[in-house]
Write a structure and sequence with these properties.
The protein has 245 residues and is an alpha+beta fold. The chain folds into 2 domains: 2-120, Alpha-Beta Plaits, CATH 3.30.70; 125-238, Alpha-Beta Plaits, CATH 3.30.70.100. Helix content is 41%, strand content 27%. It has helices at residues 2-18, 34-51, 67-70, 81-93, 95-103, 152-169, 199-211, 213-221; strands at residues 21-28, 55-62, 71-78, 116-122, 139-146, 173-180, 189-196, 229-238. The chain has an 8-stranded antiparallel barrel, surrounded by 4 helices.
Length: 245
């Protein structure tokens, strides 16, 4: 029995280590340094990521409050968790990166703290995103849901069978859906991004969505119950070098 369990765990780890994995990263800059950070990504980092096998998915800056002045949120993709480790090691030791990092901080350190990183797997219902016409008022929304204990599967079923379709019905475009890879967040967390035509459209879409009888029926029947905590929502604008627009 122990040998069987060990084999199953080994196979599971193999899927985690060798399957494609996404990474959500959040950078907070020192005052006045966000433009410097964006310039470094635009002119150097994105290219160096590609060189080392890291695929750039999307880059955004929050629209509201202090975070609009000091925060960069982005998603990248690795071939596997092992590949991510190797890529980050190669990137960090690349002489080209060391030169860029040194020269970009001659007037002071750019980052105020260590970047926050969350490795994620795509859900089975995450769509294949294709860019449409990008308008200057477009806004993306990053949302993080914490399900009640044991209810993540029911939350996924509700999104898969109802929510994503009702979102589209009310003008909200589904971009991507993920689960964190690592415990404890892997047991209760759903991370997703949707797109709105603008902030006013977002406000109207959410109002219409929550009032929709179809949504109310699905929510009541889903067995999800109340979330463990209110959803965390961040409205964001794509950078000029973001792949997702």
């Amino acid at each position: 029995m122990k040998k069987v369990t060990a084999l199953l765990l080994s196979c599971l780890w193999g899927q985690i280590a060798f399957g494609a994995v996404f990474e959500l990263r959040t950078y907070v800059t020192n005052p006045g340094k966000l433009d410097n950070l964006n310039a470094r990504f635009r002119d150097h980092t994105v290219g160096l990521f590609k060189k080392h096998g890291i695929e750039s998915v999307g880059y955004w800056v929050p629209t509201d409050g202090e975070r609009s002045k000091n925060t960069l949120i982005y998603v990248i993709k690795h071939e596997s968790r092992d590949a991510a480790k190797a890529s980050w090691k190669a990137f960090g030791s690349d002489p080209a990166w060391k030169k860029v990092a040194r020269e970009s901080q001659v007037d002071g350190k750019i980052l105020a703290q260590r970047p926050d990183s969350v490795y994620m797997n795509e859900t089975s219902y995450s769509p294949s995103w294709k860019n449409g016409k990008a308008e200057k008022d477009d806004v993306f929304e990053l949302r993080i849901y914490k399900a009640a204990k044991g209810k993540l599967g029911k939350l996924d079923a509700r999104f898969r069978d109802h929510t994503i379709r009702i979102f589209e019905k009310h003008g909200m475009k589904n971009v991507a859906y993920w689960h964190p890879v690592d415990e404890p967040d892997s047991k209760d967390t759903l991370i997703y991004i949707i797109k709105h035509e603008n902030r006013e459209a977002a406000k109207k879409s959410w109002k219409d969505f929550l009032a929709d009888p179809e949504w109310k029926k699905a929510a009541k029947a889903s067995g999800v119950g109340r979330l463990a905590k209110p959803p965390a929502a961040t409205y964001m604008k794509p950078t000029d070098y973001s792949a997702i627009r």
